[in-house]
Amino acid sequence: MNRLLPSWLTGHRTVLLALVLLLAAAFVAAGVDDEFVAVPGDLAVSAALALVTCYLVSALGGLLVRVPPGADSWAITALILVFVMPPAADTATTVSLVIACAAGCASKYVLAWRRRLIVNPAVAGAVTAYALAYAGVGEVTFPTWWIASEQLLWPMAVIGAIVVTVLRRWPLALAFLATALVTMWIVRETADGGEISMWLQSSPLFFVAAIMLPEPLTAPPTRGLRMLYGAGVGALMYCQQAVEVSDAYTLEFVPEIALLIGSLFTFAVRLGDGSARRSRLTVTAVESTADRTHLVRTVPAGSAPRFRPGQWATVSAPTWSAPLWQRSRRVFSFANAPGQAPEFSFTASDPASPWKAGLITGRTTALLLDDIGGDFVPHGRAGAATVMIASGIGITPMLSMVRAAGESGQLAGITLIHVLRAAGREVYGDDLRLAREAGAEVHVLIAPELAAGTDGFEQLHQLIGEPSPGAHYYLSGTPAFVDAAAAAVRRLDPTLRRNPLRLHRDSFLGY
Question: 153 CB contacts (<8 Å, ≥6 apart)?
């Protein structure tokens, strides 16, 4: 499915579009069903208030810290809170929604560690409303998560499945769903917790799985930790347990509290691996390295970002004048080895997008490194051969691995095959030459059909030769190339069917 997606459909835009479609479904349900939780007028007021409040608070926060807010993140926070807080039907619900939105967007600047947010802003807003309502402050109302209305169950399930597929977050979603269902069953069997079907129809199960959990800045950076994060939130949300904190307060694991604990778990993980910060990067040079391909050299403010070879980075360049529909961030692989100044490569279309054009022309001189993650990293098994197959600029994460292996003198046993559509597209020639001289087996192959993922895979068989027992294979490039190359490698090495973890694929669409 991912190969069919347009290039403009990023993760944030996918979530934003999903929320808009869900809001449209809610308007339809409100118009045709008298028993729906809200009427169309209340929904319209809620959406308008949430969007205006989130925009104004985000703009004010951006002015104070001198960083423009993300062009789409404030809108996502607003629409999430529309579904979490009660519809604006009276003064109390209207004020509660405004408070939740203001607190959520303010949390990006207040609840931050080294310029990086700690808690999902929508969760921060919902928890603020929950705390004020619990304390009896004014007429603030509790979050109701009315997205769990029975009329929206199927739209949420279908849209949610599409979102998770586009974001490639099925392991996270399935870990959450499986743990939640098991917890529901345990509660039903041990504490008469009601039928599971009732919980499915009256709790925000699918909304949390598809919209809340995948938020990249408050989810762990690797697959295993994300699954643990999802499982933990699923267990907490449905355990039906309460903790007596004091005579006046009992902590119940409602969805916003479970998600708050999940965000804090992620923050602890980020502190441990050194990625709990938002780094400023100064662009020192943008070099043309091949046809429509450019290398971006940067210098970080402070120490070099910590990452593993092959991982990706979310890089942003927000501007005050950027409209909502213009992207302010990109996902790139690190080209450098850990400990070095960050370098990224990209291939631009003709004409280039406004974001990339800013770098190419020199207008953009400052970047923000928002996030680091990914599982496309060296396997670490001593003695096991490594075969890397890349198409075009997909060689970038492999270059990071090769540079790191070269620093430690471990290039022997690495086979690198770089497939190109044309001779003018070759990049990193000096690095590949040095790797070859240091013991790596390096091949540059001009094969347009192979690079496109349509034909020519017998050439890969000839270059790889007889599979080495226990070899790990790394594939990187466009989705079409990676899918076709994976099938070809499995034919070459049938043992991969018994041990598929030896086949590694790049995990983003940054090409």
Answer: 200, 201, 206
